[in-house]
Amino acid sequence: MDFTFTEEQQAAVEAAKAVFADVAPDGVPSPALTPRAVADEFDRELWAKLADSDLLSLVLAEEHGGSGLDVIALCLVLRESARVLARVPLLEHCATAMTVQAHGSPELAAALLDGAGHGSLVLTVAAHGRSGHDPAELAVTARRDGDAWVLEGLQTAVAWAHSADWTAVPAHTGEGEAVLAFVPRGAEGLSLAEQYSTSGERLGELTLDGVRVPAAHLIEAPGVWDHLRQLLATGTCALALGLGENVLTMTSEYTSKREQFGFPVASFQAVAVQAADRFIDLRAMEVTLWQAAWRLDASTGGAGGPLPSAGDVAVAKIWASEGVRRVVQTAQHLHGGFGADTDYPLHRYHAWAKQLELQLGPAAAHEEALGDLLAAHPLA
Known about the structure:
This protein is an alpha+beta fold. The protein has helices at 7-20, 44-52, 71-83, 90-103, 106-118, 224-257, 269-300, 309-335, 346-360, 363-376, and strands spanning 123-125, 140-145, 148-159, 166-172, 178-184, 190-196, 202-214, 218-219, 259-260, 263-264. It is 49% helix and 16% strand.
């Protein structure tokens, strides 16, 4: 069995490293010193570079100007973006584009995918429901009205909502299956309120009051929202991994230079043991991430397994939500007071890690979901 990445996937990583090489994590004001959002917009200059490097079209088919790569390739690029805290809607944009390509009508694909691949259209998704704790698909209702659908409800903490051209909104019809509606910015009946993330990014509370969506702009395929939700969760695990790896590197460099009693603190057994534990966390986060990403690709191709792909995603979320928290907490501890210095970037990584942890949700909830899956799908 070959666990190495393909040449195409490795090429995507190299392209991503080149694009992100000049990105500074402290390119915007510190979230610790900014009462509102650190910026009104995402990094449009970086977005243009990603488009020029064909990284926005990475997961699109050749007919839409893409490279036809998979979830693993996307996660590899997301991992690199998180190392530098890249402020771009790469995850939401690409995951939504993949969903349109796989399940959208020809009209919807024609309206969105070419622009999405070139970066001229920005896509996002409302994934957090009314409160961030209830299922997102239950926060909005969708009812037929002639040849259109009418949306009513509210979605909170929508990433990049004020900058995105289109937002994918999960909704329920009252018939047990979630649908996915695509709403353009400025649609009649759509309003946005200001919200801010723990990492200082601008979010939107999206209110839909009788928003009409043409039937061609709504996807009714069974399981479409569930698959998009798993894509978003797996991509968030990739972000957590990239962030955690960079934080551990920062910690290693600092403790190798910082001396106490005439010796680098990295040479002290207590410091080395804590760093080693966090290295183990990161390796567990990595292996569970690639398992989840591979299962999502395999399930798209029709391959099955003893458990649905949701089981692999749950395991990845368990490790990512707990692991990224432990990594940044250990880093803060080993940096001492220097870790809280707002002129040093570690506090920015801590804020981003907390936001990712909140997006992933508590490990206990994923363990319960995994238990339910094991009960419903006996392995023996």
